[in-house]
Amino acid sequence: MKLLFKLFLFVSFSIQAFDVRVLLDQFSVADGQKSEFVLSSESGVFVSGIENKINGKLSIICTDKNILINGVPVDNEWIQVSPSLSTHHEKKIHEFIAHWLKTEHAFRKEEMLKLTNFYEKFVNDRNFRDYEQLYTVLQTCINLCISSFIESVEHPVMSCKSLVEVAQSQLTSQLKNLLTNTINEKNVSGSLLKQLQKNEKIRIDFFDKVLDQVLLQFLTTYFLQLPHKVIYQAIKEHPCCLHFNKNKYVGIFYILRQGNEVLLINSLDIDDYLLSVVFSEGWPGWPMEVNKALVIANRTYLVEKILQTNKTKRPYHIVNTIKHQTYKGHHKFIALKKAVDETRNVFIAYQGKPIVAMFDSCCGGVIPSKIEGFDGKKHPYLARVKPCTYCKKKWIYNWKKEFSKLEITEILRKDHPHLHNIKDIKVAEYDNAGLVKRVLVVTSHEKMYISGKKMYSLFSSVKSFCYSIKKKGKGYVFQGRGFGHHMGLCQWGSLGMVEDNWNYEKILQFYYPNTEFMQLSLSR
Ligand SMILES: [Zn+2]
């Protein structure tokens, strides 16, 4: 079983970038209206369309005509707001890059070997005097270096493709200048050329120097756009955050106008997003295996959303609310990072595609395949036939709430404003899974049915779809099982399983039957 799982991990699935765009808020700017919000960062911010760094707060006013940032109109379609690094961070990053350059990374040795082999070929062909050719050789090697570098860091903050494009266009001109200078300086056509042809050490030193200079120039010029992980490693203890609505966010923000709406989107590394989501959606103090199972479900849900988005023109992948997954930005619960790191890129697939990995707090023992209206053909991996018994002993399994007639009337009036004088309320129909299909409300002048879904959305203290309604004194008692929609992974059940020594692989295979694990990778 274990071996099979490991094998599945080698099956990979590509997406275009390891970053996610989360919709944080949407502001209406219909005719004559204006919307206003504030963004800030302790270290200051850079705004596309405004040249200088801005310290303090950004006041953003969106009207139906334009967007004003601290009073300055900005015309870009996508306005990018990124936190600037503090001097402390910049120092750390320089240290990191210096260290990185000093360390003999495997790919550099490898590329150096390629470079030497290319060079040998040119020497043998006696074409070395043509420095244009040397330039081509070097450029090929540098491009290979850049690609290997990007692969080695795994998490580019910008898409891999654009990073390579930036790197290559910059390198072309940088390399030309650098080579011209080096060759002029060192008089390559004369004595050095002879030395280079004869002496392997001088040759390697020469290439090493050129390569180092190009890389150093590239890294120092573009370190702000370098893959997120490089920056992340340098600043992981004190990330640069953007503040919005009392929450802190890593990554960058986009302000985007779409018709009469202005969207605020947070773009960040998938792992940072998951670290945040597992905190809001899960139970941070729980055993690691439960959190790992939840992270994989969260990642799978996200990947599925990313693929859906790619089929549309929607500028974001996922929303930050319970509608998709609750995302509240940066938190300091470092222990959860282990759950993200140790399951990196793993997601759940059915027939080679990410599943819609639904989860709830407690399933209440309901068997999902029996739920009416659920399409088991469309989502076979949610059609579990075995009941979950692992949440049964947990406090959350049972719930009870008493309502007076007046309270019930007030709640139902949100949907039926004229409702009054309730005579009786009871469950009229259950489905095969035991979920409430319809509730009958009898008043002095009418009888009406309210769907189970509607009841769930109206009554915030009705925690699930599985309950009974009984008369008690002048009011009613709602008594039920479970917390949530009864589909997919049951969080409290997972906890029970871990207490019985289950691991996250086994948990996920129970809740999502007939699925396999796959590995996320970048498409190139
Ligand atoms: Zn359960």
Overview in brief:
The chain has 524 residues and is of the alpha+beta class. The protein is 40% helix and 24% strand. It contains 15 helices and 24 strands.
Key structural traits:
binds zinc ion; alpha+beta; 524 residues; globular; 4-stranded mixed beta sheet; 24% strand; 15 helices; 6-stranded mixed beta sheet
What structural category characterises the helix and strand content?
Answer: alpha+beta
Give the mean pLDDT.
Answer: 79
Secondary structure tally, helices = 15
- Which ions and ligands are bound to the chains? zinc ion
Strand composition percent = 15-25%
* Strand neighbour order, sheet with most strands: 4-8-11-12-2-13
Q: List segments where confidence is low: pLDDT < 50 over at least 5 consecutive residues.
A: 1-10, 126-131, 152-164, 221-229
User: What profile does the largest beta sheet have?
Assistant: 6 strands, mixed
The radius of gyration is 30 Å
Percent in helix: 40-55%
The span between the termini is: 32 Å
Query: What's the count of strands?
Result: 24
- The outline comes out as globular
Describe this entry's structure for a reader:
There is one protein chain. With 524 residues, this protein is an alpha+beta fold. Among the domains are: 20-84 and 240-268, no CATH class; 90-231, no CATH class; 395-481, no CATH class. Helix content is 40%, strand content 24%. The chain has 15 helices and 24 strands. The protein has helices at 2-9, 87-102, 106-125, 131-153, 160-186, 188-198, 200-222, 228-235, 270-281, 288-310, 335-341, 405-412, 452-458, 491-499, 504-511; strands spanning 12-15, 19-28, 34-40, 45-47, 57-63, 67-69, 72-74, 78-83, 242-244, 247-249, 252-258, 261-269, 318-319, 346-350, 353-354, 359-360, 398-403, 422-430, 436-443, 447-451, 466-472, 475-481, 489-490, 516-522. The strands form seven sheets. The chain has a six-stranded mixed sheet. Strand 18 (422-430) and strand 19 (436-443) form a beta hairpin. Helix 3 packs antiparallel against helix 4, helix 6 crosses helix 7 (200-222) and helix 10 (288-310) packs across helix 15. The longest helix is centred in the first third of the chain and has 27 residues, at 160-186. It is globular and about 105 Å long. The chain binds zinc ion (ZN). Zinc ion is lined by residues 362-363, 388, 390-391, 490, 493.
